[in-house]
Amino acid sequence: MIESDSPTITTPQLHDIARGYVKTALLRTALELRLFDELASAPSDAGALARVLKTDARATRILLDALTAIGLLRREGDDYHLLPGGETLLVSTSPQFFGHAVRLGASDWEWDAQKRLVDAVRHGGTVTDTHALTPEFDYWEDFANHTSWFNNGAAELMADRLAPWAATRESVKVLDVASSHGAYGFTLARREPRAHVWCLDWPNVLEITRRNAERQGLADRAHYIAGDMFEVPLGGPYDIVMITNVLHHFSEDTATALLRRVGTAVKPGGLIAVVGHTYDEGDTPETNPLPFMFSVIMLVQTHDGETHSVATYRRMLTAAGFKETRTYTGEKAMHRLFVAERP
């Protein structure tokens, strides 16, 4: 029986959930118009903003009032002000611009996939023709282009833990599986000048990885393996293998099979470093909602993916033949880091 002091479901709460897409549309629209960029320098009224943005004045006023209603602006008289924090997160020239995340997390493809959630629940996974595991899906090009900042400290956390160990090795050969933007391998390579990084991803994604390596002065230490991580020859052996933010796309059995496969490319005594969305065994949807909400995204985008628990990651690494799994978190790292050794 539900305790009497449990939260009560209310009509306003249900209205807010049902109309949640309107907030997303407001944010997407304001970012696409670069509206926050205009307000960063000085407050403005709707008419002046409409002239600069080349939009309809009445529609601009409605948009500005709605952005104020959801807490992104403040209105004083006829003028609209950008709230503190907006200059960092909502202005396109800021290094921490959140618009890149919106471009991905609120992309047309993700919206369309969520429309099929009822079918995914009935079916047990994605029912879309194009999904997260479709070979050479162009969504992953956008991901590589717009999420190198999104590591939220996880790449730095990994380099902090691996660089001192790497400095003791005779060689530092690194395989970065599903490398995308390459931030994890390249961050370590900047710390350890002897490191060479082999980036594995789809060929269309590796074009972006290659450009990132060149921009960071790492072109001579970056190498590329194009293809399916479950099938393409891995080369090696490597001192370190990285698998970052990909195991949640698969069931525990499939993810373990991938870990076992890449484990054959790790030198004896070498390390595997895994980064991923996780939750602790004591977490519940009430105390830590984000990983459970992320599982919904995986439900509509993959065949059998979901957020795995810390215990599941440990179990997978052990089953794949690794030992002495250590876990790390950082203040700026959204994702958890696992490091384990190949005997």
From TrEMBL:
Transmembrane segments: none annotated. CDD domains: AdoMet_MTases. Residues 116-323 form the O-methyltransferase C-terminal domain. Pfam families: Dimerisation, Methyltransf_2. The active site is at H248 (proton acceptor). GO terms for biological process: methylation. Gene3D superfamilies: Vaccinia Virus protein VP39, Winged helix-like DNA-binding domain superfamily/Winged helix DNA-binding domain. InterPro entries: COMT-like, COMT_C, COMT_dimerisation, SAM-dependent_MTases_sf, WH-like_DNA-bd_sf, WH_DNA-bd_sf. The keyword Cytoplasm does not apply. The keyword DNA repair does not apply. One of its GO terms (molecular function) is O-methyltransferase activity. Residues 17-90 form the O-methyltransferase dimerisation domain. Keywords: Methyltransferase, S-adenosyl-L-methionine, Transferase. This is Methyltransferase domain-containing protein. The lineage of its organism: Bacteria, Bacillati, Actinomycetota, Actinomycetes, Streptosporangiales.
